[in-house]
Amino acid sequence: MSYNELIKNFEKIRDYMRDFYVYGFRTRSDFRRKSGRSYDDERRRVESWLSEYMSFRNDANGKSVFISVDSRTVSHNPLYKAFKAKSFTDLDITLHFYIMDILAEGCRLTFREITDRIFRDYLSEAGSDLEPDESTIRNKLKEYVGCGLLGAEKKGRELIYFRSDSGLPEKSWEEAVAFYSEEAPLGVIGSYLLDRYEKPPEYFAFKHHYLLNAFDSEILAAIVECRRRECRMEITVLTKGQRGLRTDVVFPLKIYVSTQNGRLHLMAYYYRARRPWMYRLDHIKQVRVGEREEERAFYDSCGERFREALWGTSSGSSRSREPEHLEMTIHMDEGEAFILRRLEREKRCGKVEILDKHTCKYVADVYDAQELVPWLRTFIGRIERLECSNGHVRREFYRDLEEMDAMYGEDSDDFS
């Protein structure tokens, strides 16, 4: 096929960029979908957007090309460029300019008036071979109303169309838009707004810049739309081990964003399992809008109850899904009330009990106590006792202490 930097289906390029240019471990010889020429076409397409961010390495398996970004010098997510390379037909671009020109300067016209002017004032004058039928023009007007380029008002039995020009965002919004475009889950919207400025502002640099969320923007937008319309949705997801695909019918409840790695998760009510479920957004391949959910209040309440024992995104491996009980007793010296404040501030569930002026206890029932271990380790040196119904968590914690003592400490019986 001939090379073209524009794309029609973002799902294809989403997978391709992840497999070859983000994970960075695949080579040309690993490409099995079509021919090697297809790989070369896809590579040139990506490089046309991201050439200044491409690096490569050679090993025994061949040459691997990957995206390399230094957050100290890159203030705008370069992966948004993939969304701005959507393909279009000659008719698409022709109708765009015709319609926007016809409705310029506050003009308000009906569908029939717009159609007549396209054929009379544009196509006949230009001698164009393009002859769109009325249904194509009507669909284009409907599409533009849906995405906000046009407005429509009912007048009698007809719709009156007009341009919904919002103008350039005010200068005072530049900072907010610049921050939103890099920090918000749907920051690609902010990136489009920044393109309207002559020179995008360079206000922010990020120590932890989660660029990969850009790939999930279309999926996230579809989920948010289902939630706004309070509809069920059918999602196609990768199975465990990413060996195949399955289809689940769910009702969207909440989106979770990790503060540690930026990964996005969907909490949804999974009808087949009759309970809330967690899905990684980068494992969701497709979203289809279903029928309106009349019992949405009930499923929302199920989600709220589910959250009470949720520390991260894991709901545990036990089939019974019973929460695991954990208790941590902590010592505080004089003047260390900040320890108590920190416990109250950082706990995501559970409660803190004050035992005496130097001791307090954190008690929680969570689906997967293993998720707490990194947080528990930050209190090493103050923990007097740790108990957990999941024996593996307790054994792992004390084993880590013993290994640390053997490595750094002296002979002692401090750990038991």
Task: Describe this protein's structure.
This protein has 12 helices and 14 strands. It is an alpha+beta fold. Helix 3 crosses helix 4 and helix 6 runs antiparallel to helix 7. The termini are far apart.
Helix and strand arrangement:
Elements: H1 10-22, H2 36-50, E1 54-59, E2 62-67, H3 90-102, E3 109-110, H4 111-126, H5 134-146, E4 150-155, E5 158-163, H6 174-183, H7 188-194, H8 217-228, E6 231-238, E7 245-257, E8 264-270, E9 275-280, E10 284-292, H9 296-307, E11 324-331, H10 337-346, E12 351-356, E13 359-366, H11 373-377, E14 383-388, H12 391-408
Antiparallel strand pairs: 1-2, 3-5, 4-5, 6-7, 6-10, 7-8, 8-9, 11-13, 11-14, 12-13
Task: Give a brief description.
The chain contains twelve helices and 14 strands. The chain is α+β, with helices and mostly antiparallel strands.
Work out the number of β strands. 14
- The helix-and-strand class reads alpha+beta
Helical run tally? 12
Largest sheet: 5 strands, antiparallel
Gross geometry? elongated
Radius of gyration equals 28 Å
Helix/strand order, N-terminal first: HHEEHEHHEEHHHEEEEEHEHEEHEH
Strand order, largest beta sheet? 9-8-7-6-10
Average predicted local confidence, pLDDT: 84
Beta-strand proportion: 15-25%
Helical content class: 25-40%
Distance N to C terminus: 68 Å
